[in-house]
Each structure stands twice: as structure tokens, then as C-alpha cells.
Amino acid sequence: MYCGAVEFVCSPSAVRHIPVLLDECMACLKPERGGLFADLTFGGGGHSGEILAASSESTLIAMDCDPDAQVRSTELRSQYGSRFSFFDSSFKDLDKVTAPNELDGVLMDLGISSFQLMEPEKGFSFRLDAPIDMRLDPRIGQSAAKFLEEASYESLVRAVREYGEERRWRRVVDAIIKARGTGKLSRTMSAAELVSDAVGGRNFRQRIHPATKTFQGIRIAINGELEALAVTLPKAFRALKEGGVLAVISFHSLEDRIVKRFMRKMAGRPESRYDGRPNQERSVYAVLNGSKAIFPTKEEVEGNPRSRSARLRYLTKIMQPEL
């Protein structure tokens, strides 16, 4: 396992960012060998900083659509100069800043950063009372409050049932529609209370808040997260050199399923157990490094509870596909 992990703390903020599965990511990407890497979800810069620190021969392209991430990136820019480049953009635009067969490694951490969760004005967390926004890029799209007030019944069902995987989705959707115009859907804590009441309230045995799944589903819906991931994975793979590594950290089953199926497809394996096409009909473009996801150690989860649901999958490119 790669050693020498550093804890990246961004000085302009009191929020401490702890990168998830850091050692495991470095073991996959091997930045100590040098090369050109891309961190498509800069966040707090923890993974980016470790990649750059691993070798003086490593250079890094970082991307993030959160406008505050660019401010946080200045610390690495001042430390590493021309070895570090930051693009204030969604990872969907990767093909606009890289060329095919250019990168030695690509990292995607699909979780929400500590900075986004702990800044009330971003409206991601119901533990902090604020206007409910949830946009990864607040400069575009509609806020969660507007979505809750105006979305169709079908869109709400998709967000709560499919994206949030909430079993009591009918109760939640009905409660949201009934609450329209009351102001309850405009703020994080009142919206969370509404959802909690709809699913039966919270008891002491619950590990997570009753509104967690619904908030997750709404966030995924308004940001188009699954669609963006599906679009970006082929671009990331195309940008890799032969021998380059694509590593993706996911946090819930929907995004992990997209990652797993894409990687299995590139490796010439059935995308699911229901896919019965013969293997000889499949083109092999990558080596899938292990058939199972890599999870945080018990020690990491104890030190950083937010890593609990993280899982890492990675593959190595062996030839260029026609994507």
C-alpha cells in the first residue's frame, strides 16, 4: 500500500477536509512514478495534493464546478506552480481540457465535500438551517426549493423513489405536494422535518436521519448527477494513455452500479448477471483490477465516519476503444 498520506487542511476555512480512501487511491494511481493525472472532483484538494506530493515528475489537472473550489485550489497553485492546473468546470467538460491518450491516471470522488456540507448557504445539510439549494454549481439550474415547489409528480417520484431509494416514497411525495406554498419547502430543517414526519419520525435505533435518502434523491435529480457520470466515464477512459488507470469512488448504489457496469464493459465482462451474451463477442479494452470494490478500513471509518459508505473501483486501460 502507498504510504506517506498527508492530511489536507485548507487554511482559509475552519472546515477540515479528510480525503476518503486516500492510500488506496494512491496505490491504484501510483503517482510516485510521475505522469499527468486528472482529479475531476477537486473538492478540498486532498487527493490532488497527495498526487502532486508523490513525485516532482507528477503534474495534475483538477476540475470542480463548485465556484468555491477554485479559491481553495490557490494553495496548491502557489505550492506547485505550473505542475497544477485548475478548471472551474463540471467534469462533463473533461474532453475540452484534455486530449485522447494523454493522461496517466484519472480520479473521480463522487461524494459531496465537507466544505459543501458545512457551509449553510449551499443548502445540502439539514443539520444547518438555511435556504435549501443543493446545487453543485449554484450559478446554473434550479435550486432544490424551486424543484420541490414546481416539479411534476413524476419528477418527484423519480427523485424520491428511484434516486433516493426511499421505501415510503408515496408518503414523502404526497407530503411535499401538500406543503407547497406554505414555506416549509424553502429551508433545510423545515423540509427535513416534513420528510421525517412523512416516513414516521425518527427513533433512537436509526443510524441516519429519516430525511437522508430523500435529500440525496433531490440532490441527484437537480444536479443530473447520474447522467453526468454516465457521460463522463467514457470521456475519462478515452483520455487515458494505454496503461493509464481510472479510479472512481462512489457513495451509493446507483452511481456505483453505473461505474461497475462501465468498467465491466470495458474489460469485456458481462455488465450484469442478466447479460448472457457470449464473452467472445466482447471487446477487451481494459483490465479490471479485482472483481470487488475496495472499502475503507475500520480505522478509517472510525476516524472519518463520512467514509462509511465509500467504495473504490479501478481499471487499467490496455487499448483505445471507439466510444
Based on the model shown, name its key terms:
323 residues; disordered N terminus; seven-stranded mixed sheet; 39% helix; globular; alpha/beta
SSE topology sketch:
Elements: H1 22-29, E1 35-39, H2 46-54, E2 58-64, H3 67-80, E3 84-88, H4 94-97, E4 103-109, H5 114-118, H6 144-150, H7 153-163, H8 169-179, H9 188-198, H10 212-223, H11 225-239, E5 240-250, H12 253-266, E6 286-288, H13 298-303, E7 311-317
Parallel strand pairs: 1-2, 1-4, 2-3, 4-5
Antiparallel strand pairs: 5-7, 6-7
Describe this structure in words.
The structure is a single chain. This protein is α/β, with parallel strands linked by helices and 323 residues long. Helices cover 39% and strands 14% of the residues. The protein has 13 helices and 7 strands. It has helices at 22-29, 46-54, 67-80, 94-97, 114-118, 144-150, 153-163, 169-179, 188-198, 212-223, 225-239, 253-266, 298-303, and strands spanning 35-39, 58-64, 84-88, 103-109, 240-250, 286-288, 311-317. A 7-stranded mixed β-sheet has the order 3-2-1-4-5-7-6, with helices on both faces. Strand 1, helix 2 (46-54) and strand 2 form a beta-alpha-beta unit. Helix 7 (153-163) packs antiparallel against helix 8, helix 7 packs across helix 10 (212-223) and helix 8 (169-179) packs across helix 9 (188-198). The protein is globular and about 55 Å long. Residues 1-13 have low confidence and may be disordered.
